[in-house]
Task: inverse folding
């Protein structure tokens, strides 16, 4: 919105042309989402508290978590509000990639909101039935995949890029691309949701991965940089930098309230949406494998649940003391803050490895 206004003003006043620079709008998106979150956050937390939207705590979990019962949840609505407003203010409204990413993110947020609402208001510990949750996630994931395919012009936009190799790409075709996109978006959404179990654990890795994906989006959207680095040029993908920047700013602001001891929890409304956002950006910029690397913490958390469930059903024994993985380390004696910070450090290392693929090809 503001970009359109400044472009109009720039016809008469040259100063306003500076807002056409993508990097400047990305910085402004970070600052805008930060400001919105800091201004709205305290009010939203008070409202959630008054409405008694408190978090339920598992009885079989670490005993240290019992004190968290009643802490306001559904704080992810704050993140989505800041991301949506900031993105709409600073994006190019004619860019279809940002619209696809934003609408998909908000769609997953709605699914998460219904799940949280049923858990808290209806006192249903299972929330939205699993089959319906996956059904709507599938609808949104497939819808996003079809929207991307519909706007695809180049064969490279449907190839699976293999990092660390300069000219290795696997042609997927339309069907293969849709299937891959579905699994990446839905898988990332659920992976972030599983990771969201400790104060600040999920949000900081999300911010770091989103920032790195913003770099990939900027490179993919720039014909000169993408050609120099051997990446497919995807016209219009650079505008996703604004979207990723908005996620980064909103996530950092949310961490202010979510840091130990948390004043508010993200809830499914935030976790499902943010995971989907990472997945769809990775698909558009053709960096699905790099997302798998950079989001290694999310992957480990998901695998720990899958292994635990499979082992218990097949052998009656548990591999981990408790799943997801962060609870395993808590029960081994790690303090909550130790688990969180160490997982952050691991994510930072993995993000740097992912960024190195820009040059190491």
Result:
């Amino acid at each position: 919105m503001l970009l359109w206004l400044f472009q109009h003003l720039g016809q008469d006043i040259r100063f306003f042309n500076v807002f056409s620079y993508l990097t400047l709008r990305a910085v402004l998106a970070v600052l805008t989402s930060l400001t919105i979150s800091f201004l709205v956050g305290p009010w939203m937390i008070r409202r959630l508290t008054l409405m008694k939207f408190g978090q339920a705590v598992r009885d079989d979990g670490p005993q240290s978590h019992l004190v968290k019962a009643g802490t306001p949840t559904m704080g992810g609505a704050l993140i989505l509000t800041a991301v949506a407003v900031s993105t709409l203010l600073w994006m190019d409204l004619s860019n279809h990639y940002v619209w696809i990413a934003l609408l998909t993110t908000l769609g997953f947020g709605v699914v998460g909101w219904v799940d949280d609402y049923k858990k808290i208001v209806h006192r249903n510990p299972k929330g939205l039935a699993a089959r319906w949750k996956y059904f709507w996630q599938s609808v949104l994931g497939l819808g996003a995949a079809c929207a991307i395919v519909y706007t695809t012009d180049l064969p490279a936009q449907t190839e699976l890029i293999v990092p660390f190799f300069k000219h290795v790409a696997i042609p997927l075709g339309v069907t293969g691309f849709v299937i891959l996109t579905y699994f990446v978006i839905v898988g990332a959404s659920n992976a972030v949701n599983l990771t969201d179990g400790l104060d600040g654990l999920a949000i900081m890795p999300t911010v770091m991965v989103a920032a790195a994906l913003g770099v990939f989006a900027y490179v993919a959207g720039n014909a000169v940089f993408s050609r120099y680095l051997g990446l497919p040029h995807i016209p219009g993908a650079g505008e996703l930098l604004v979207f990723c920047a908005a996620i980064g700013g909103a996530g950092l602001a949310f961490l202010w309230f979510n840091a130990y001891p948390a004043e508010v929890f993200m809830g499914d409304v935030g976790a499902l949406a943010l995971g989907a956002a990472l997945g769809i950006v990775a698909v558009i910029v053709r960096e699905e494998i790099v997302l798998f690397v950079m989001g290694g913490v999310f992957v480990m958390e998901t695998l720990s649940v899958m292994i635990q469930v499979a082992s218990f059903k097949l052998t009656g024994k548990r591999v981990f003391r408790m799943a997801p993985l962060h609870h395993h380390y808590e029960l081994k004696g790690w303090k909550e803050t130790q688990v969180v910070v160490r997982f952050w450090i691991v994510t930072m290392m993995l993000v740097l490895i992912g960024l190195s693929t820009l040059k190491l090809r």
